[in-house]
Amino acid sequence: MILDIETGLQNPILRTKSQPIEKITRDIHKLARDMKASIGPNYGIGLAAPQVGQNVRMILINVPSEYYEETGFADCQLDQNYIIINPVIKSASSDTSVIEEGCLSLPDYFADVVRPTSVEFEGLNLKGEKIGGKATGIFARIIQHEIDHLDGILFADKALPLKPKQAGKIYV
Fold first, then answer.
1. pTM for this one?
2. Which among 11, 50, 154, 165 is most buried, taking Cβ atoms within 10 Å?
3. Which of 6, 100, 101, 146 is catalytic?
């Protein structure tokens, strides 16, 4: 089912720190399916559970091949819905880059955000298996953006001055 996207800088759902998922239940599998259904029509490349009203620690990453040549993480293929439960960044590079970011929860804005260019992360898949490793490029950018959502942080909190969104441009 396509879920509504929570929006707004002061939205309490988006500003609440999400709870770890203790057990992967049917409800968690349903939430993952609903997140997959919700990301496509909204032209997103990343989605966190709080963005669809659920304050649990789960994110989805989908790097579209029409915009990127690679994902930046070996286990994630282009155009693949990649779910991570209880994601944690274990380390981040000292090298940083500035990239324009946008957000489904702040649909009218984008801004330059400084983030590490690579991260080491870990989490679980929907089978409860440990996943993770080194991520670079767009995958590293997306995972940092989505984990911020799980901590009640929006990209605008880390952004250089906001600018109006440009039509036809894709944002993290």
1. 0.92
2. 50
3. 146
